[in-house]
Amino acid sequence: MEGGNQVELNMIVNGKKHNIDINPSDRLLDVLRDQLGLTSVKEGCGEGECGACTVIMNGDAVNSCTVLAIQARNKEIITTEGLEKNGELDELQKSFIRNGAIQCGFCTPGMLMSCKALLMKNPYPKEEEIRRAIEGNLCRCTGYTNIVKAVKDVVIR
Amino acid sequence: MQMMKIETPNNLDELINCLKNADSSSCLLGGGTDLIININNKKLYPNTIIDLSGVNELKEIKKNGSSISIGAGVTLTEVCENSFVKEKFPALAQATSQVGSTQIRNRATIAGNIGNSSPCADTVVPLMALNAKLKMLNGNGEYYHIPVDKAIKGSGKKNLKPNEAIIEIVIPYLKDTCSSAFYKIGSRKAVTISKLNGAVVVDINLNNTIVNAKVFLGSLGPKAFRSIMAEKVLMNKKPNKELLSEFQNILMKQVDEAIPGRGSQLYKRHAIKGMCEELFIRLFGESCIRGEI
Ligand SMILES: Cc1cc2nc3c(=O)[nH]c(=O)nc-3n(C[C@H](O)[C@H](O)[C@H](O)COP(=O)(O)OP(=O)(O)OC[C@H]3O[C@@H](n4cnc5c(N)ncnc54)[C@H](O)[C@@H]3O)c2cc1C
């Protein structure tokens, strides 16, 4: 979105402080993708339905398409780019690969962030809790079974 | 492209200042789960956005002497996971836990649900049944209370002035003999907009007789409303299979009166029977309608 007069935004993204100028009408999604180049954050429906743009904000999974960027001021954001540490994938990412939880891949970053947010709060989720955590993430390939399996697999290990 | 201005008050005093200058082209921003989508889809072009997310006073759930108050900035996740809300106001806990998805509930607020004024808004139905009031604040720095119903015009229009904001949702405690329940029916199990939603509050005496009842229905007209005819049916009766069937019949009649000739009338007059049964189970337990009690 365009919007005229720029405003200043301070936030921490994947552990790094950012101080950037944004358009007042920018969504968090726009800033993460277009200004910070974090293209794991996908725009699917743009209406909060599909979950492809899910990121973690101060520990909570949120749709970055429904958050106005300025609302992320002084907040800590994690995107899929932030899961990898020192060149090594996060256990959750490894488990997604191991369990065939990825097919076309478009929903995967959002799905990972919803599952990661769940595991950060609840390291031993039950199946129903896993399913509830990904209610807001649409996947048209996997049928969700392998995604749930991948999360359970992380829990077991 | 117009210049959109964003105001980010950090406390109630700063909010009052923002409200002082608010006009019809200003918009309050709660969680943004309705508003940001509408702005992005170019259905709305506000000149000024007043973001409430930085106002710390609005982020609390407080227990007062005779009521609980939920700040306008409290998310639906915080409401539905609050143990006091779960224990004392199950209808509200059930409604908030069934709005949208985890991501939506992590941002959405009750104040925004009321402000959006959708006919099928899920939190509005239990709030009305629970006789909730809204604590308001305006640009003159005045605080006052209004009933939930007064804040909503209906069909997606709120009945609030640009210079006033909901700051708390205040719900009076119920007697210990009361219980409440909410149920919604949508086109799928999760992340679904209600096709029907309803909330019931009942007071049951020691003889297992209903001595007071409140029944509110949503998604059957411009805004949620009270069904006095359904309340009459429940009064002074014991909850059992027979009463369920009377309750179902009267609510079918209520659907016929609310949306005569509407395409969805036939579906909703049948679907509401299932909703009645689920509400009975949540209020009185399975055994009251299945077998002998
Ligand atoms: C995918 C998806 C699923 C959804 N599912 C449901 C559902 O199942 N049930 C349901 O009821 N809704 C649902 N919604 C709608 C929405 O999430 C709710 O209405 C939510 O409660 C809005 O709250 P918010 O804080 O995000 O509001 P916002 O978008 O911030 O604001 C909505 C309106 O309220 C006004 N407002 C906000 N705060 C205040 C205040 N303090 N005082 C006065 N006015 C105010 C705003 O100006 C605006 O007009 C869904 C939305 C999406 C995108």
Give, in spatial order, the strands making up the sheet with the most strands of chain A.
2-1-5-3-4
Number of individual domains of chain A: 2
Tell me which ligands are bound.
Answer: flavin-adenine dinucleotide
Characterize the largest beta sheet of chain A: strand count, sense, and whether it forms a barrel.
Answer: 5 strands, mixed
Radius of gyration of chain B: 20 Å
Query: Averaging pLDDT over every residue of chain B, what do you get?
Result: 96
Share of residues in strands of chain A: 15-25%
In what order do the strands lie side by side in the largest sheet of chain B?
4-5-10-6-7
Blueprint (SSEs and pairs):
The complex is a heterodimer of chains A (157) and B (293).
Chain A: E1 7-13, E2 16-22, H1 28-35, E3 54-57, E4 60-63, E5 76-78, H2 91-98, H3 108-121, H4 127-133, H5 145-156
Parallel strand pairs in A: 1-5
Antiparallel strand pairs in A: 1-2, 3-4, 3-5
Chain B: E1 5-7, H1 12-20, E2 26-29, H2 35-40, E3 48-51, E4 61-63, E5 67-71, H3 76-81, H4 83-88, H5 90-97, H6 102-105, H7 110-116, H8 124-129, E6 133-138, E7 143-147, E8 152-154, E9 157-158, E10 164-172, E11 178-185, E12 196-204, E13 210-218, E14 225-226, H9 228-234, H10 241-258, H11 265-284, H12 287-290
Parallel strand pairs in B: 1-3, 2-3
Antiparallel strand pairs in B: 4-5, 5-10, 6-7, 6-10, 8-9, 11-12, 12-13, 13-14
The complex binds flavin-adenine dinucleotide.
Flavin-adenine dinucleotide sits between chains B (27-35, 37, 52, 72, 99-100, 104, 107-109, 111-113, 115-116, 121-122, 160, 165-166, 191, 193) and A (47-49).
InterPro entries (chain B): CO_DH_flav_C, CO_DH_flav_C_dom_sf, Diverse_Substr_Oxidored, FAD-bd_PCMH, FAD-bd_PCMH-like_sf, FAD-bd_PCMH_sub1, FAD-bd_PCMH_sub2, Mopterin_DH_FAD-bd
Domain FAD-binding PCMH-type (chain B): 1-176
GO molecular function (chain B): FAD binding; oxidoreductase activity
